[in-house]
């Protein structure tokens, strides 16, 4: 498979190595200093592009992939307030977008467990739920995209919570997400249910970026040749 990389930081390098190890070819690498490469024959020859950049440029990058009719896998977070707008553009241009807040297999298993636990805890109102997420100091968005996805999973199942908030609950219907930025932490997410009697918690702790990179390549393999909007629930239907 021919892959284009958009963003060549730590994640881009990790994705490149995994893709090569799995027998794929990197035909184009686009970073901040060569965005003209979007118009190249090499980029347009790609079976799929993988985009891990920054929130302020992600939408433009996706639009240029749509224009080139190159299916794109996007792992950039912090821009998804505009996701519906991007999906409309994708549909209008008959393009393909695979988007996920987190491509790690472990995180997606964790998200399924999170939803199931919230469904159980809906019957036990004495437990209040909150979340803590920890990432490296270079991460720009807070809460993380993964934390927001996990929070949305809880809100879908837990009737007593109506919205997530940053840091501190304003009322009993708020789900507080505490964000910490420390060192080189790849990502930790912990969901905590606490009552006067005890605490129940579940946690995912990423050891390296490799799990995210592998998931992105698996998503690219799944996306090639498809049309429309694709998510991890299509790749991992559990």
State the gist of this model:
The chain has 8 helices and 11 strands.
The poorly predicted ranges are none
Question: Structural class, judged by helices and strands?
Answer: alpha/beta
Bin the strand percentage.
15-25%
From the N-terminal CA to the C-terminal CA, the straight-line distance is 27 Å
Secondary structure tally: strands: 11
The helix/strand series, from N terminus to C terminus, equals EHEHEHEHEHEHEEEEHEH
Shape annotation: elongated
Write down the overall mean pLDDT: 96
Order of strands side by side in the largest beta sheet?
Answer: 2-1-3-4-5-11
Question: Could you name the key traits of this structure?
Answer:
six-stranded parallel sheet; 8 helices; 238 residues; alpha/beta; elongated; five-stranded mixed sheet
Task: Describe the protein in words.
By secondary structure, the chain is α/β, with parallel strands linked by helices. Helix content is 37%, strand content 25%. A six-stranded parallel sheet has the order 2-1-3-4-5-11, sandwiched between helices. A five-stranded mixed sheet has the order 7-8-6-9-10, with helices on one face. Strand 4 (72-74), helix 4 and strand 5 (96-99) form a beta-alpha-beta unit. Helix 1 packs across helix 7 (210-223) and helix 5 (105-121) packs parallel to helix 6 (145-157). The two termini are 27 Å apart.
């Amino acid at each position: 498979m021919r892959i284009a990389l958009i963003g060549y930081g730590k994640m881009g390098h990790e994705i490149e190595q995994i893709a090569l190890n799995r027998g794929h070819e990197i035909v184009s690498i686009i970073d901040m200093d060569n965005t003209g490469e979007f118009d190249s024959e090499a980029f347009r020859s790609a079976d799929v592009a993988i985009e891990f950049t920054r929130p302020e440029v992600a939408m433009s990058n996706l639009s240029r992939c749509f224009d080139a009719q190159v299916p794109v896998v996007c792992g950039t977070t912090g821009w998804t307030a505009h996701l519906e707008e991007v999906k409309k553009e994708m549909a209008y241009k008959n393009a393909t977008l695979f988007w996920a807040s987190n491509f790690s297999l472990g995180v997606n298993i964790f998200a399924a467990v999170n939803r199931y636990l919230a469904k159980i805890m809906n019957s036990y109102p004495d437990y209040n739920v909150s979340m803590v997420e920890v990432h490296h100091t270079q991460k720009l968005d807070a809460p993380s995209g993964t934390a927001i996805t996990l929070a949305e999973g809880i809100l879908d199942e837990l009737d007593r919570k109506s919205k997530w908030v940053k840091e501190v609950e304003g009322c009993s219907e708020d789900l507080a997400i505490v964000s910490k930025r420390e060192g080189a932490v790849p990502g930790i997410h912990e969901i905590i249910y606490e009552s006067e009697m005890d605490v129940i918690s579940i946690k995912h702790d990423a050891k390296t970026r490799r799990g995210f990179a592998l998931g992105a390549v698996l998503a690219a393999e799944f996306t090639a040749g498809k049309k429309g909007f694709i998510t991890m629930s299509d790749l991992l239907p559990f």
